[in-house]
What does this fold into?
Amino acid sequence: MPGKGVPTMLEIKNLTKSYGDVLALDRFSLDLKKGEVLGLLGPNGAGKTTLISILSGTLGDFTGTVNFLGRNIFADRSLKNRLGIVPQDMAFYDELNAMDNLLFWGGLYDVPRADLKKRAAELLDLVELSARAKEPVKNFSGGMKRRLNTAIGLLHKPDLLLLDEPTVGIDVQAKVSILDIIRGVGAAGTAVIFTTHQLAEVETTCSRVAIMDKGRILAQGTLEELVRIVGERDIVEIAGEFAAAAFSEAVQDLAGARIELLSAADGLASLAVADTEEIPKIMDQLFRRKLAVSDLKIKSPSLETVFLKLTGRSLRD
Amino acid sequence: MRRLLLILGNDIRRHLKSPMAVVIFLAIPLFMTGLIGLIFAPGEEESTLPRIAVVLVDRDQSIASKLLMGMFDADQLKKMFEVTVTDEAEGRRRMAKGRATAMIIVPEKFTVDLLDAKTTTLTVVKNPAEQFLPDVVEEFVNTIAVMLSGAIQAFSEEARGIRAMLDQPVESFPWDKLGPELGKAQKKVVAAQAYLNPLLVGIEAEEIKPASAKPKFTRTDLFSIMLPGMAIMFLLFIVQTLMRDIISDREDGKLRRMMTTPLRPMELIGARLVGGWAMGLIVLLVLVAAGTLIFRAYWGNLGSFLVLGAAASFWTAAFFGLFHALVRNRNQSGAISAPIILVFSLFGGSMMNPEAMPKAFKAIGVATPNRWFIDGAKLVREGHFPLVPLAVLFGSGVLLAALAVPALRRKTPV
It folds into this structure.
């Protein structure tokens, strides 16, 4: 994580956006420093894509302020030359080859043609597509297309890179390659925000994590800082044939400093316990209420646990 | 402007990389024009009329009737008439079966009556099932009657000599006297040559058509008339296909990505409208070149025609710009645009001759670009500048563009 004295690239203050009655972003605030790679974690509908759309200038009708490099990102069109976007869609032309795609998309930025060609060649090397540079993109695999999609966002050497779920639907090899690129970009000084559902990606790639739900940031910090939220407790995951409400009622009397209910869904619940000796008490309560338990797992605290604690649901919900 | 040209160039490059749709839409009008032309157009041969089947009934069986039959053997008349000599009953049967246009009956004593300067009558029986060809035969026989009457009056002295010889039996026919009689006639002919020569020229001159007659219609003419109708119909299809990028870019997220760059919405909208217009014009140029090379189509003043084509292409680009701002997705675009183009083409005259259309069709056709383009092309072909069609296409195109730009702007993310 960048230390003190590192300049702030992005300042978001009280960003609010609603679709009719649904509040997509609720007074959302965030700072991002140069070279910082921020993983934005949140379940579906948390507001991640809305945030990326507003920052990239393709969504309007919101309140709040966003300053990029100290200037209003929406008022100063020239800032678009310093902002890179990697959308969730494979947004390029299938009938063109990789090089032509890079030259076209790069051409929309104010990059001199000669520099652009050189930069496109560098990026094709970086995403390991040099050998297929002249081949129509429609022949590419899903992973290759994702890598090209990422490369397009880097053509003009942006100061801020926004990636919206850049690893969706690709194989492990391509995923590792893209995450390597993101780490490399951050190390080179570019501030990065990348949204994902994959906790493991955030754990291995990001210098800072923000967990958001219902349009707000619930917690943010380094991985260690977030885990401390849950404390030095074990996580007990219980599966069985029970209703969420019945489970919550059964463990209600035990709740306190040593036992905390993190989440309860029909058939699956998670609790944080100060000591594994608390587990028999929980089981006793469940048996008394005649709630059938089929499986019990004890886990160490992780980002997933933090997420569960903060949102009350897992990322897959 | 740089970005507008970049998008324009990229669009053209992309469509050239997968040109199948454009090639198909270019090939279809040429193929259809060729096919229809081959089926319906007359050939390029000189003769535009069929040979007229005439039955000749010779009740005279003498010199004059044989001369009359011999006339039909003359080169030019041979091309016009197909003469069958038979009796009256067979002649009527032939006409009833539609195998003869008219029957000419040479009466008995035709030669003798002529030489005696008596009135005699050639009868023409016309086939009522045919329209104008029997009249041609009647006119022709009238002409012969006039010629024969004039000839007999001019050669009355010689005719009397020959007439006297005809009364004698064949075995005692004075062949030695026939020569001098014909010699006298020949002297008159030579003397009259100075007057006859202009007459012969006058007969030749009859081949020149009267001013009221319609010019000969050829296959090339048919292609020249058909191609503009086909061209505008497929111009609509091609421009629609190319401008579908507006909606596919929106659906695939490319529009959103473009709007994250410094590109301004108006640059993108301008590029798409100019692109549609330019591609339409290029396609029209290819069609004109192919039509000229393959069908020898005549377009009139090429400059005027291209100005008209530019206006039609502009109208088409503006129309489909607005259309793609209003439809929701690619499927909707495909499902709605094809019927629209077909309706335009049906009422606008791409599928049938506008002059032969019912009044209601013609009234609806006024609202289609096809009708104005076809009318304009006709004016250019006839040597006029297509001012009104041009003004209508350009004016309504400007109106459509004025509606399309804000509609497209609304569909462009921020």
About this structure: The two ends of chain A are 30 Å apart (CA to CA). Chain A has a mean pLDDT of 86.
